[in-house]
Specification:
Number of domains of chain B: 1
CATH topology of chain A: Transcription Regulator spoIIAA
CATH class of chain B: Alpha Beta
Radius of gyration of chain B: 16 Å
Order of helices and strands of chain A: EEEHEEHEHHEH
Distance between the termini of chain A: 36 Å
Largest sheet of chain B: 5 strands, antiparallel
Strand content of chain A: 15-25%
Order of helices and strands of chain B: EHHEEHEEH
CATH architecture of chain B: 2-Layer Sandwich
Oligomer: heterodimer
Number of strands of chain B: 5
CATH superfamily of chain A: STAS domain
Number of helices of chain B: 4
Shape of chain A: globular
Structural class of chain B: alpha+beta
CATH superfamily of chain B: Histidine kinase-like ATPase, C-terminal domain
Number of helices of chain A: 5
Distance between the termini of chain B: 31 Å
Strand order of the largest sheet of chain B: 1-2-3-5-4
Largest sheet of chain A: 5 strands, mixed
Chain lengths: ~120, ~140
């Protein structure tokens, strides 16, 4: 599998908006690649304010949730902030079932995620 | 002569201990559900549950051993879908898996697969050895209301 860019990055003032390009965040090797690209935003690029945009995402497994949790820890450890946005209702239910809606800051859309960041 | 509502699709495949090999199986099952006009939410839940079951079988059951395989059986009709996923590992005790929603576990990056299968499926059962899971989803539009 190629390791093409799996995140479309946008800079809005000092906030990085990373939009997943995949419809399905499933399958171990795929999730590994996406996870590494997420982590590099913090580890290599030292970005502090990050919004993850789920507009394109139709499926997401528990392994992907694991990467998001690790990402959240990395961002917090570096003194930054992470927000999630534009999550469709099926996937939002996954966050609610696992109570991860309490761990993450989730906003309805990109504009609301950027408000007061 | 069976009517459309009585039509049954059934297949069994054996895949290697490689999570990428699970994707075509998922696609095949989803195609059956879509052909039978299952609700989008049912399809979402079933695909998610198969993904979790296959990852558990391959990673935790077979421990990615290339000499071991995973058997997937699927039977789907107009009313429900039944999927069995069996690995060649030592099995486990589902009640030993810690509750991922407990405050102390909330930040652990793993341990949510079984919970998601339970949430989205009508039935989930393990055999006594803990190396085979049976998942059933009943069509939600016929049970709703």
């Amino acid at each position: 599998m190629s390791s093409n860019r799996r995140l479309d990055l946008d800079e809005v003032n000092d906030v990085t908006v990373a939009r997943f390009t995949d419809k399905k965040i499933l399958d171990e090797s795929n999730i590994q690649i996406i996870g590494n690209q997420l982590f590099s935003l913090v580890d290599e690029d030292h970005r502090q304010k990050i919004v993850l945009d789920f507009t394109n995402v139709e499926y997401l497994s528990s392994a992907a949730l694991g990467k998001l949790i690790t990402m959240d820890k990395k961002v917090k450890a570096s003194g930054g902030k992470l927000r999630l946005c534009s999550i469709r209702s099926d996937i939002l239910e996954v966050f609610k079932i696992t109570r991860l809606d309490k761990l993450f800051t989730i906003r309805e859309n990109r504009e609301k995620a950027l408000e007061g960041f | 002569m069976p009517t459309r509502d009585e039509r049954v699709e059934e297949f069994e495949v054996v895949i290697p201990s490689d999570t990428a090999a699970g994707q075509p199986v998922q696609d095949r099952i989803v195609q059956h559900l879509e052909a039978l006009k299952y609700d989008d939410r049912d399809v979402f839940g079933v695909r998610l549950a198969i993904e979790e079951a296959l990852v558990n079988a391959i990673k935790h059951g077979n421990r990615m051993d290339p000499n071991k395989t995973v058997r997937v059986f699927c039977r789907v009709n107009h009313q429900k879908i039944r999927i069995e996923v069996e690995d060649q590992g030592e099995g486990f005790v589902p009640s030993d898996v810690p509750d991922p929603t407990a405050d102390e576990n909330l930040e652990r990056p793993c341990g949510r697969g079984i919970m998601l299968m339970r949430a989205f499926m009508t039935l989930i059962e393990y055999n006594a050895a803990g190396n085979r899971v049976v998942l059933e989803k009943h069509r939600s539009t016929e049970t709703a209301g």
